[in-house]
Specification:
This protein has six helices and six strands, in the order ββαααββαβαβα. By secondary structure, the chain is an alpha+beta fold. It has a six-stranded mixed beta sheet, with helices on both faces. The termini are far apart. InterPro entries: Acyl_CoA_acyltransferase, Bact_Acetyltransf, GNAT_dom. This is GNAT superfamily N-acetyltransferase. Keywords: Acyltransferase, Transferase.
Length: 157
């Protein structure tokens, strides 16, 4: 799926390009948690984009509206592993939909795209993490069939 039509408008699912970095960071900031943790300096994001883009195991998605504006993003990564019989997993991170687009079905379409992308690369399981305070996001993920099956833990390095 390279496009989706919602309410008569068509959205294109593209691999992000370097020129999208400011728009992607703006989506990351358009969020209660992102406002406080995303930096104004784009240089670290530009460097991170280069690393993600260079690795075929990762896809940084830019969803564009009919005017070419980025209205959604997520990072999809395939992680090979030994557990589950040597299974690969699809890791979905940094999911954001423009505040003006929430509730339109775009997020559901983005996940359908990500699941298909992961399947074509051999992933048998999709996983994600979400901040414990994001209860609305958790309900959305549950409607997509995700289960809170594990306890996620993080530690600064």
């Amino acid at each position: 799926m390279d496009t989706v039509t919602l309410d008569g408008r068509t959205y294109r699912f593209d691999r992000a390009v370097r020129e999208d970095v400011p728009a992607l960071v703006a989506l990351l900031r358009d969020d209660v948690l992102g406002t406080g943790r995303e930096a104004a300096d784009l240089a670290p994001y530009d460097a991170a984009f280069g690393l993600v883009d260079a690795d075929p195991a990762h896809h940084l998605l830019a969803v564009r509206d009919e005017d070419g504006q980025v209205v959604g993003t997520l990072q999809a990564s395939v992680i090979p592993g030994l557990s589950r019989g040597g299974a690969s997993r699809l890791q979905i991170e940094a999911v954001r939909v423009s505040s003006s687009m929430r509730g339109t079905g775009l997020g559901r379409a983005m996940f359908a795209w990500a699941h298909a992308w992961g399947r074509t690369r051999g992933a048998i399981l999709a996983q994600l993490t979400t901040d414990a305070s994001r209860t609305e996001a958790q309900r959305f993920y549950e409607r997509l069939g995700y289960e809170a099956s594990h306890i996620g833990m993080k530690r600064p390095l």
